[in-house]
Amino acid sequence: MNSLVEKEQQLRSTKTHDTAAVRLIQEGGYVSPSPHLWDDVLISIVLKKPVLLKGPSGSGKTKLAQTISHYFNQPMQSINCSVDLDAEALLGFKTIISKDGETIIEFVEGPVVQAMKKGHILYIDEINMARPETLPILHSVLDHRRMLTNPFTGEVIYAHEDFTVISAINEGYVGTSPMNEALKNRFVSFTVPYLTGEQLELVMKDTCPFASKQLVETFLHISIDLKKQVMNGLLSDEAASVRSLLDAMALAEHIPVKRAVQYAIAEKLDDTIERRLVMELVDTWVK
After folding, report:
1. Positive or negative CA dihedral for 89, 91, 94, 95?
2. Do residue 202 and residue 153 come from a single domain?
């Protein structure tokens, strides 16, 4: 794993966004939808600022975190938040084991403790799905103190120099709740939009390298139309998910485009009218 100084040197060596984008897509990594997003997130990481990624489902937030992990050669511990998330899921738990013929109580370290001690990236996905009363335990981890007193063991843990926190949220989705101000203020926040234009085309060709030019163009048109209807309020955000679009395109290399879009995009939508609208948009480009 790179030290903080090595991270800074590595960051300075990235000369332009375009160069970084080409290299990362060749490695199967994240492609930034704007000229500055990738570089600005990296700078925040090097400055030890907790990063909050905001954006719709399928916009690439997890991919961005994974690419940062790869870029810095830094392992990542992941937490998938839900209403069932508790302190044990974050910090660890006590268990009874047999050792040298004796029964002892051992503490199994959770992702937060492991990431802090080993200098890993801690990725907290859908942080606004967790119960508000669960997360204050992380306040001292996320601010200038970068430390934690483990309530299960009494151990005081100071974060490794390379310890990094990246969180992600899907705003306004069912089951989510607004982040409280005390938690939100500990992050530097970035909006992660869907890919469009040349960046999306680059990802399509990387994901489906044997797809015909016509198929790529068809899905670019479909993507544009889906995004327009999302902006018009006629489709929910997930209809324009890049992840779903790429799934549909991969299927369409083997089955008709209409069926591929139906399975990968339309059938995921709860609203019958939305499903019908998606298929009508496809009919515009597929005869």
Report:
1. positive
2. no
CB 116 within 8 A of CB 163: yes
pLDDT recorded at residue 16: 44
**Is-contact 267 228, C-beta < 8 A?**
no
Residue with tokens 């103190």: 145
Does the pLDDT of residue 175 top 60, yes or no?
Answer: no
Residue found by looking up tokens 């200098």 in the block: 119
Q: Minimal CA–CA distance to 2: which of 161, 167, 166?
A: 161
Nearest alpha carbon to residue 129 among 92, 83, 96: 83
137: CB partners within 8 A, 6+ apart: 87, 90, 91, 148, 151
Domain count along the chain: 2
CA distance 177 to 165: 20
State the Cα–Cα distance between residues 165 and 149, nearest whole angstrom. 18
C-alpha distances (whole Å) from 139 to each of 49, 55, 227 are 13, 23, 37
Helix then strand then coil, % of the chain, to nearest 5: 50, 15, 35
Q: What amino acid is encoded at 123 in this protein?
A: Y
Do 101 and 213 have their domain in common?
A: no
Q: What is the CATH number of the domain that holds 84?
A: 3.40.50.300
Q: Assess whether pLDDT exceeds 90 at residue 190.
A: yes
> Is 211 found in the same domain as 177?
no
- Residue 173's pLDDT band (boundaries 50, 70, 90)? low
What is the per-residue pLDDT for 162? 94
Residues spanned by the domain of 113 = 4-191
CB 261 within 8 A of CB 248: yes
Other CB atoms within 10 A of residue 215 CB: 17
Residue recorded with tokens 């163009």: 217
Q: Are residues 249 and 206 in the same domain?
A: yes
